[in-house]
Amino acid sequence: MTAVTVDKDGDCFFHALALQLKAPLPVSSIREMLVKHMIKHKDTYQPLTSCSDTSYVQECSLLKHKGIWNTDIADLIP
To answer: Are 66 and 10 in contact (CB under 8 A)?
Structure first.
């Protein structure tokens, strides 16, 4: 195991994920895929939050934006 430094720009989780996946994808694409997955599987994830149906989709959509991480929805991501 090797420690790797990633940018501390609010996208550090996504930079680290891209490195682990060895994915040549921009962080914005990884964020987009994650948001689509979480909205598509709302029935799985939404009950684990305090969000209403509407606010769940809104909170998921916030994760599309660079630097956004500290949300109830982001806390669900392992």
So the answer is: yes
Residues 6 or more apart whose CB falls under 8 angstroms from that of 65 comprise 31
Read off the pLDDT band of 78 (50, 70, 90).
low
Query: Most distant CA pair in the chain: distance in Å?
Result: 41
**Tens digits of residue pLDDT in 11-29:** 888 888 888 888 788 888 9
Residue 25, judged by CB atoms within 10 A of its CB (0-12, 13-18, 19+), counts as middle
- In contact, 49 and 73? CB cutoff 8 Å: yes
Measured distance CA(28)–CA(52) in Å, rounded: 26
pLDDT for 42 equals: 93
